[in-house]
Design goal:
Blueprint: H1 14-33, H2 39-42, E1 44-48, E2 51-54, H3 55-63, H4 66-80, H5 84-107, H6 117-133, H7 138-155, H8 160-172, H9 177-183, H10 191-201, H11 214-236
Antiparallel strand pairs: 1-2
Length: 237
């Protein structure tokens, strides 16, 4: 792996990165779906490069850290998992379980035209599987990628086709981390925040970290649907 950052600075395990991503996601969702109604959250806290920043905007900016880090961990998981079928099934189950909480939080209804980000990650994971399985058959591989690209567009999964392409590019540049950090942000909005989040992944030490037991692993899986339900019920209370 090409990474010019000194080894002593590789201080983040996969667990720490996952924790940062979860906190960032919570920050974003709280700002968008709950805290916006409070006056104090919209008040200007400081000025940055001539732009007035409120706590709400600051939380949303931090929220942009979540998706790039989750994609980085998805690529790491794809390469390191011993059972890709089980990994894919876990993504599918989580995507299905998260759909109703996602719909309730976003549209206050059981049905919502867009799908949650786990479907984006699942489609990206399937794309990586096809790239590897058909690596000697580029025509088939490209055809499957195009089909999954169309599916992501039709489903309107979170981050849409830009998120799908982002996953593929992150995988393609996985061995060139500096180039990955500079090039990948162009695909998403809030490019500076995406760049900063990828800088954090450059400090990854290649270790799993504190999330080792099945209990902790499934607690982190459950965080996505559970925190959306909690925000929905708080909004309705």
């Amino acid at each position: 792996m090409s990474n010019n950052i000194p080894e002593r600075l590789h201080i983040f395990s996969g667990s720490v990165l996952k924790l940062i991503a979860c906190v960032a996601m919570l920050s974003d969702h709280l700002a968008k779906f709950y805290l916006f109604r409070f006056t104090w959250a919209n008040e200007v806290w400081f000025t940055l490069v001539g732009k007035e920043i409120s706590i709400l905007q600051l939380m949303e900016m931090f929220g942009r850290f979540a998706f790039p880090i989750f994609v980085f961990l998805l690529v790491e998981g794809f390469e390191k998992t011993k059972n890709r079928r089980k990994y894919g099934i876990s993504l599918l189950v989580l995507a299905l379980l998260s759909e109703i909480p996602f719909n309730l939080m976003n549209g206050n209804a059981m049905l919502f035209p867009k799908q949650n980000v786990m479907f984006t990650l699942l489609l990206g994971f399937l794309a990586l599987c096809s790239l590897e399985y058909f690596r000697n058959k580029p025509v088939i591989s490209l055809a499957l990628l195009f089909v999954m690209f169309l599916i992501s567009r039709y489903m309107q999964a979170d981050y849409r086709t830009a998120g799908f392409i982002f996953i593929i590019l992150m995988y393609g540049l996985r061995k060139e981390r500096i180039i990955q950090t500079v090039a990948c942000p162009v695909l998403l909005q809030a490019k500076l925040m995406v760049f900063l989040s990828l800088l954090l992944t450059c400090l990854y030490n290649g270790k799993r970290g504190f999330i080792k037991t099945p209990f902790l692993k499934y607690c982190f899986y459950a965080f996505y649907p559970v925190h959306m339900l909690a925000i929905y019920f708080r909004i309705c209370s």
